[in-house]
Structures are given as structure tokens and as C-alpha cells.
UniProtKB/TrEMBL annotation:
This is Pyridoxal phosphate-dependent transferase. Belongs to the class-I pyridoxal-phosphate-dependent aminotransferase family. Signal peptide: none annotated. Its cofactor is pyridoxal 5'-phosphate. Keywords: Aminotransferase, Pyridoxal phosphate, Transferase. GO terms for molecular function: pyridoxal phosphate binding; transaminase activity. GO terms for biological process: amino acid metabolic process. Residues 115-442 form the Aminotransferase class I/classII large domain. Gene3D superfamilies: Type I PLP-dependent aspartate aminotransferase-like (Major domain).
Amino acid sequence: MSAISNILGGFSVRKFSINRNTGVPRPARRFSVGEPGINEASSKVHRQFRAAHEGHLPHAGLDATRSSTGVVWCTERAGEHGFFEEPEKWANLGQGAPEVEDDIEGCFPRPKTIDISLNSREYGPTAGIKPLREAVAHLYNEMHRKGQPSQYTWENVAIVPGGRAGLIRIAAVLNNAYVGFFIPDYTAYNEMLSLFKNFAAIPVPLSEEDGYHIHPDKIAEEIARGTSVILTSNPRNPTGRVVKNPELAEIQDICRERATLVSDEFYSGYNYTSDCDGTTISAAENVIDVDEDDVLIIDGLTKRFRLPGWRVAWIIGPKEFIKAIGSCGSYLDGGTNVPFQEAAIPMLEPELVKKEMIALQHHFREKRDYVVSRLRDMGFHIKLVPDSTFYLWLDLEGLPNAISDGLNFFQACLEEKVIVVPGIFFDLNPARRRDLFDSPCHHFVRFSYGPKLEVLKMGCDGIERVVTK
């Protein structure tokens, strides 16, 4: 194998550049390894994608004129097909949100009204109210640190207005550092890693052949070359896989005193590796000293408590970090809505959470099994069934050429009132520094089985029509 083949590895050869004024393909540009196929060269959605993202244009070094996450871009395209006028007729399998209704057997009903105390009319602390911080610390001690001498306290917790706000706060307090992130991963990391100049973002490609698994030796390699912050979702978005113990503990041992581990655990409750017994996955279990181990954990009500609209999340870590993270909220986001913080406290009682996670896991595993069965019957090759989250990283190779890449498959699904997210959005490209035409994520889409079962059935019916056509 030639040197260039070794470098490119599993990257596809589909690569071309579009003249944004004429829509005509340009000659192959830097890093190109092949000419465009007719399906891409004539594809309206490919032209739209490249016109919206500076990193996919001929002058990739220019500042971005527009910035949006993949889900927003996909929703905008769906809007052009009537999604906003009649959303009830669509199967939105692109939005990264769980069903929010109260009809999951065994789950507690969510509040429909909230008492607003006099105190909550005032500005709240930017690190969150103390009772909620105490409730979060107690939950993690009960679920992940029983019998360990070092315990979290309220001072180890900052409450933040949603996961993105939490990520931005963490980014704001990072030192001059190389920040290693894995691809594919959560699309919103793109913006976080692009905004701040106090660190350099270093992409770490994972191998498709072994399901994009994060091996401990991969972490060791990154630290050996000077990376001092590791950022990752776990359980992993978009692949639906999880790194659990003993591998997770090994990764934390490698990072200890050498690198800060930022663990995005929003899908920690969607864990199917322990037969839906309510077990959640968290790096908190392997922390030795809560104030010495450089581990920052981010989670919240959004996913596993099925309350994305509340925008209540938390960051857990050493007191020194948490103090800085809490303070920077004063100039970044102003802090989390106080009445919703107060309403969240009773939900975090450990026994209640355990029962909730058991019900949640059984329900979402059933939905996972349904969509996997339907898609396999259509001819999709699903190598690895997700063992966590509510996402399926759906491989399009083997489909007819016209729909075998994520953007064209997405476009075809829109015609059937189905929304998925093209895999290219998860090949994170902060500040558009890389050329993505040869991305190994081109032949994937992310399929969310977060919505209700009737929506999933409608979505699978639509995809079946796409494949049949």
C-alpha cells in the first residue's frame, strides 16, 4: 500500500469542489483522491451543504459566514419541504431528543405546574442554587461512589442552563492546551471548539472497522504527543456505543495527573449493557479523589429525565474547577432558570432515579429492537447494534448509488417527510480547518429512535419507500 493510501485509510474517494456561484463542479482540489460521481455532481443538497459551510468551499481559510449545527441545518431543509407547517405529518428522526410524554410505564409523571417562590424572582447564583447542587452530589455518591472515602459535595457541582452552555463554560476555563476530540462525535462540539482561542483542537479519527471504539491505547497515544485535555461523549453520540469498565477505568488511569478528561454523559441512563437493570455509566465511579482527579462530568435533565425544554444541566468536578466554571457564567449565560432548578430537586432522589432508569431502559431497548429489525428487513447492514443512547449510526453502503451517501439519502427522505442527519456533520471540523470531501462519514446517517413508537413506524415506512423507489 502506498504512503498516501496508508494516510487516507478507510476514507472514500468521493471528492469534489463546487463553484458557489455557478453550481458547477471544479477540478479536484487539495487532498482530492478522485473525481465526483454523477449523483454528487448533480445533487442540489450537496450544493446547499457546501454553500452553507465555509470549510467545504474552495476558499476554506476564510471566516465562516454562517454557523449552525447539523440538526439545525437539516431542520431548515425540512422546512423548505413543509415541515414547519405540518410537523405532525413528519417523522423527525433527526432531533436528538427523547419522547417527553408521561405514558412510559414505570416512569414518574413530570410536573405540569411549578410553584415560583419569592426568592426565585431574584437573580440566582451563576453556579446554581445550593439545594440542587447538594441533590446532584448526593445522587452521584449514592449511584457511583458508595463505600469510597472521597465523596462529592455541593461545591463539586455547578448547575448550567443546558449542555451546550456547560460545554462553553468548560471551554472558557481551559488553559493553553491541545484538546483532543474524537470523530465522529456530537455536532455541537464543533462550535465550542471553534469559538475559543485559548486551546488548539486536535481531531482523533476512530476506526469504522471496530465500531469507532475508543481504546485506551488511543488515549495514551494522544497524551504522549502532548494532548492535555480529552473531550468525548460517553455513551457515544452518534454511534450508540459506550466505553464501560474496566476500559473506562483504564482510560481514567492513563489520564490521571497527565490530562483533564471531559466526559459528556448525557446518555448515561440509556444503557442496555446490563440487561436494563437501571445501571448508569459514569466516570464518577473511577475517580479516586473528587478534588484531585481532573475529571469533569456533564449531564442533566435533558436526556435521561426527558426534559430538554427545561435547560437544566450540571457539571461535576474538582472544587477548584467548579468555582471557575460557576464564576464564568456571570459573563457567558447568566445562570440557570431558578424556578426550574427548585422543581428539579425532588426528581433526583436516588431510589426514584433508579426506578426511572429501569423503566427508561426497557422502553427504549424495545424501540431500538423495533427499528433495527425494520431496517434489516429493508436490506440495511447493521454491524453493531447500539448498546446505549437512542441513536443508530446507519451505514448506507450497499444501497443504490443514488442514495448511498448521507446527503442524498437525507434529501430522498425529505421527499417522504422523514428527517435524518447526514453523517458528515459528525466529522467534526472546528473552524473549518480540514477538508471533508473524503470524509469516512459520508456514507452514514444518524437515525434517532428517541421519538414515540408511532413516529418511528411512520419514519421506517418512509425510509422503506425511499429504498423501494
